[in-house]
Amino acid sequence: MTMEQAAQETNKTNKTNKPNRTMLVKHADVLVTMDGARRELRDGGLYIEDNRIVAVGPTAELPPTADEVLDMRGHLVIPGLVNTHHHMYQSLTRALPAAQNAELFGWLTSLYKVWANLTPEMIGISTLTAMAELLLSGCTTSSDHLYIYPNGSRLDDSIVAARRIGMRFHAARGSMSVGRKDGGLPPDSVVEREAEILKDTQRLIESYHDEGRYAMLRVVVAPCSPFSVSRDLMRESAVMARHYGVSLHTHLAENTNDVAYSHEKFGMTPAQYAEDLGWVGRDVWHAHCVQLDDAGIELFARTGTGVAHCPCSNMRLASGIAPIKRMRLAGVPVGLGVDGSASNDGAQMVAEVRQALLLQRVGFGPDAMTAREALEIATLGGAKVLNRDDIGALAPGMAADFVAFDLRQPLFAGALHDPVAALVFCAPPQVSHSVIGGKVVVKDGQLTTLELGPVIERHNRLAKALYEAAV
Ligand SMILES: [Zn+2]
C-alpha cells in the first residue's frame, strides 16, 4: 500500500470509528517526515488518533488540541528508528576478555560455551535491558535474532519482555542444528534437532504472529547461518515462512572466512547458496553481507532481498566495509542493525546511523553517504527490509511511532542551522520522548513502562553469574 492509499484507508476508517484517544504534537523546531516529498517542517506537528497518524503539518494547520498534547518546542522530531538485526541476550556478555580481539569464527567459538549456560530468566532480563537501551537511543521497532535455547529458554521469554516495555517487535526464531561433529561451528551441546526447531517455529507463528497493519509483534523464521544449520533446514524454513506469510532472516557473507566456508562446503558463493535455497525475495533479509559480490548485489536488487547493515559490529570484528553505496545504487533494500551486544557492544541507534555514514566514507569517499541518507536507511530502509509499509515515515495512515531529541543540549551547540544533519554528525544523543503506536514510552528521558534501575541491577547480577560459570 502506498502512503496515499494508506491515507484513504484511514479516512474510510475515520468515518465509522471514533478514536478512543487523540494526541497532538506541536511546535517541533523541525519535524522530519521521510514522506514521499521528504519534507522537513519548521514548527511542525502531528495529529494522532489511537495508534496511527491522521495529520502532519505546520502546527498552525493542525487541530488546536487533543486528549494528550506534547509541546515539542526546542526539539527535533523524526520517525522512530528501525533496528533490523540484534541478539539481545548478548547484553549479558559484553566486552568479555576472551572475545575482545577476535574475528567472527574465533569470537563465536569463545562465546558459545558461555551462552550454553543461559536461562529463561536471563533471556527475559537481557531483552528488557537491550530494548531499554534501544528505546532511549531513538529506536521504536526492533528485530531480535535469538538462535540459542539452552536450559528451557524460549522465544516467548523475549516476547513477554517486548510487550512489557512497549516496543514494536519482530521476534526472529533462530536456530542451530549442525554442531562440531557434523562440520558446523557451534559445540554439539547447543544445537537443536531440526524437527523440534520446525515444530517450535510453527507454534510461535500460530501463537503470536500478527500480520495486520500496525502489528506490534511479528514472528520471523531465522536459522542462524549457513555454518550452523543444514540445507534442509534452510529449505524447509523457507517453505514454512511462505506458507504463513512471515519473513525470513539469517546471517550471510559476513567476512572472508564465511565466504570460504560457503565455497568449500557448498561449492557456491553465499549469494548463490541463498538463491539455491529459495532465500531471496522481498520477504527475506540477510544480516551483514559485507562480502556480497557484484552478482550477489544484482541478485538482491532484482529480487528485492534486504540487507541489515551493522557497521559497528563489522568494525569490531574486522569483517570489512559493506558496499552499501553500491547496494543502494543497484536498488537493494538496506536497513540498519546494531547487531548483538557482544560484537558492538552498544545498542545506540543514533550512534549506529553515525557509524554507517562514517564507515561508508572511509571505504568509498566523502560523498558515499549523506546524513539524510543515513537517516533514511535507519527509518524507511529498515521498514522496507522488515517488509512493512506502516512504519518509517510520519504521514497520514502510518503508525504513530516517533522520537524527539532536545536540541538545547551541549552536543548540538553550534549546529542548529541544520538540526537534521546535526543529529547524525554530532555525538549521539538520547531521546527526550519516544512514542510507539500512539503510546508515550519515554517521557523527559525516562522510560514510562518500567523502572529501569532494578532491571539493570538484576541484569548485572545475571551477567556476573554467567561469566563466572564459564571461567
Ligand atoms: Zn548477528
Automatic annotation (TrEMBL):
<dbReference type="GO" id="GO:0016814">
    <property type="term" value="F:hydrolase activity, acting on carbon-nitrogen (but not peptide) bonds, in cyclic amidines"/>
</dbReference>
<protein>
    <submittedName>
        <fullName>Amidohydrolase</fullName>
    </submittedName>
</protein>
<dbReference type="InterPro" id="IPR032466">
    <property type="entry name" value="Metal_Hydrolase"/>
</dbReference>
<feature type="region of interest" description="Disordered">
    <location>
        <begin position="1"/>
        <end position="22"/>
    </location>
</feature>
<dbReference type="InterPro" id="IPR011059">
    <property type="entry name" value="Metal-dep_hydrolase_composite"/>
</dbReference>
<dbReference type="GO" id="GO:0046872">
    <property type="term" value="F:metal ion binding"/>
</dbReference>
<dbReference type="GO" id="GO:0019239">
    <property type="term" value="F:deaminase activity"/>
</dbReference>
<keyword id="KW-0479">Metal-binding</keyword>
<feature type="domain" description="Amidohydrolase-related">
    <location>
        <begin position="76"/>
        <end position="441"/>
    </location>
</feature>
<dbReference type="InterPro" id="IPR050287">
    <property type="entry name" value="MTA/SAH_deaminase"/>
</dbReference>
<dbReference type="Pfam" id="PF01979">
    <property type="entry name" value="Amidohydro_1"/>
</dbReference>
<dbReference type="InterPro" id="IPR006680">
    <property type="entry name" value="Amidohydro-rel"/>
</dbReference>
<keyword id="KW-0378">Hydrolase</keyword>
<keyword id="KW-0862">Zinc</keyword>
<comment type="similarity">
    <text>Belongs to the metallo-dependent hydrolases superfamily. ATZ/TRZ family.</text>
</comment>
